[in-house]
Structure formats: structure tokens, C-alpha cells
Amino acid sequence: MAAALFAFIFFYQRHAHKPPAGPVRLLADFKTADVTSVQVRPEGQLEIRAERTNGTWVLTQPLAYPAEPAIVESLLVALEHLIPSTYITRRELAARPKAEEEYGFTSPQATINLWCGNYRSILFIGAKTAPGDQVFVQVVGDEGVHIVDADLLKFVLNGHALPFH
Predict the structure, then answer these.
(1) Which domain holds residue 86?
(2) 156, 36 Cβ separation under 8 angstroms
(3) In this structure, is residue 2 part of a structural domain?
(4) What is the pLDDT of residue 103?
């Protein structure tokens, strides 16, 4: 009986516990190749919208013009691989009555809309963290808040290539 109990515990300890999961991406099922349209709306600036037509990116807002595909693709690739450093749960947010204001979501610095066929994802880029090297990001449909590298905001506001993808 003792040998059977030992064998059970030995094998249970080895095989029942799964290894810890790796880092979770901001947009878990997002794939750059599936995106048909992307809209970036920096606060206080004109909306920029690009659509993929026949494999080519074309600006449709604020004017119709061929888009710079490298810039659009670099934003999408960065979003596809973006891994938050911290996640603030719904429960933690509930303990802060002014969380939406504190994290900058009442007036986000930028909004990103992504269309992948019939699927749409919306991200709000809020305030910078106290050190200024990260920003708060809220994904519509996710009840928590993510903290990501502030280079995402720099790219969205300035249109420069992202160093972290």
C-alpha cells in the first residue's frame, strides 16, 4: 500500500503540474496577415486609416493616397508581438474609483482600431506610467488594463519605426 501511494505521489508530482505558461501577448489571436484595415486616431490630430486592397496598403483617411507599407506593417507586427509587462485586473481597478481617469482612458492619447475581416479590435492608449517609460493600454472587451512599453505611443504619435519589435 505504501509503495502504491509512493508511486502515485511520485508520478502525480512529475506529470500533473504543467510548466508555467510563457508571456501572454496583448492581442492573443491577432495576426498581422489577417488585418484588412487599421485606423489610428491620436488625440487632437486627424484620424489616419489605411486599408489593404489587393495586397497593397492605401490611405483612405484623411485623404486617399498610397500608404507607406513598411510603416503600417511595422505597427501591425509590433502589436502582434507586444507583450505587456504588467496586467491590472478588474478587481484591482474596482478598488480605484478614479482608475479610468488616473490611467488616461477618459481622454486617451490615441485609439487604434484593427479590422480582420468581421473581427474588430479596439485599443486605447492612456497615460504614461510615473517613470514615463511605459503606458497604460486598454483592449475593448478585456476588463483589465495592460502596461506596455511607451515606444508604442511614440510610434503612434510620431510615425517612426518601433525599436522593440
Answers:
(1) 27-158
(2) no
(3) no
(4) 96
- The percent of residues in the chain predicted with pLDDT above 70, rounded, is 85
CA 151 distance to own-chain centroid? 12
Q: Against a cut of 0.90, is the pTM above it?
A: no
Cell triple for 8: 502515485
Number of folded domains in the chain? 1
> What's the pLDDT tens digit per position in 71-120?
899 999 999 999 999 999 999 999 998 999 999 999 999 999 999 977 89
Residue 123 domain-assigned? yes
Residue 15 domain-assigned? no
Rounded CA separation 107/112 (Å)? 14
Cell 481617469, located at residue? 101
Min mean pLDDT across 12-16, 65-69, 152-156 is at 12-16
- What's the half-sphere exposure (Cβ side, CA atoms, 13 Å) at 62? 5
Residue that the C-alpha cell 492619447 belongs to: 109
Angstrom distance (rounded) from CA 51 to CA 63? 12
Q: Residues 35, 114: contact at Cβ < 8 Å? A: yes
Residue pair 165/83 in contact (Cβ under 8 Å)? The answer is no
19: in domain:
no
